[in-house]
Design brief:
homodimer, 143 residues, DNA-binding
Chain lengths: 143, 143
DNA sequence: GAGTAATTTAGAACAATTCCAAAAGCGGGT
DNA sequence: ACCCGCTTTTGGAATTGTTCTAAATTACTC
């Protein structure tokens, strides 16, 4: 029905990633990528899809998120046990995580640091460096 | 019965943390702290306790780990969705996480980095900086 | 359009963790 | 040493987030 012709980019990106551009994947990709950088959980995305009248199953949302992640379209960020965020920004960057609100926020790429990396344990190679700066709401009370 | 008189330190540390030195907490503390730095999950600790004939319930292990963490005796490290490690090293340090083996390893304190920290979002203060260097087993095949 | 393999689905299955109300244990005062 | 009140522990059920499964559907090739 209303598949319209969205940014052909999405379709292209999926193809390039070796993923068939199915209705569900396209719809989820649109939700994920057409609104700037996002940090979203599987359940949240599922909710958004349903709200947008895209009847996709939760299992498919999980499948899709993982496939996108493997394909390098997404990055998974683990901040709390039992909850995974997916970040639409796959550039090399890091995060603020607010323990009070559960909010995740990109750290502007440049503002970062990371000097000398220690060398990885024997027989292993570095796959990624995650920096999470945990913050909490400030004690605004001055009294 | 065989409570013996372990390093009075444990008892002292618990008291200092405002935690009643109950049998279970003492026993778990001993498992945790008398063998150098450890990275352990709740289930693992529970297993160790049972193996050591300390019949403690899993719920208590969870309670205890969280209380110890709040008291600053432990540090929680989240590397994978759905699994939490507790680190007996509470000094400022970081981690290697091997994606192939699931093994967590301290990064020698000095070998670290972290230069200029970006300032936290308005109204928040930094509570901690976690650096996790994800490594994977190297492609040993040279052919 | 038909055939085939990839994808989606709903729901069951799982794993880690938390919750619950009841039982047990700790420590202060006697 | 014994009581008492309050903290802690317990087992089991409940919850949460995620994965699995077998069957139905869909995308692409010819």
């Amino acid at each position: 029905m209303q598949i319209a012709s969205p940014s052909p980019t999405l379709l292209t990106r999926l193809r390039a990633a070796g993923l068939r551009p199915t209705r569900q994947r396209l719809a989820l990709a649109r939700l994920l990528f057409s609104a700037g950088d996002r940090h979203i959980t599987a359940e949240q995305l599922h909710g958004e899809a349903l709200a947008a009248s895209i009847p996709v199953s939760l299992a498919t949302v999980y499948n899709t998120l993982h496939q996108f992640t493997e394909a390098g379209l997404l990055r998974e960020v683990v901040v709390e046990p039992g909850r995974s965020y997916f970040d639409t920004n796959t550039d090399d960057h890091h995060h603020f995580f607010c323990e009070s609100t559960g909010m995740l926020q990109d750290i502007p790429g440049s503002a970062v640091m990371v000097g000398a990396l220690p060398h990885a344990p024997a027989g292993t190679e570095i796959s990624r460096v995650d920096v999470i700066i945990r913050v909490r709401r400030q004690n605004t009370a001055a009294s």
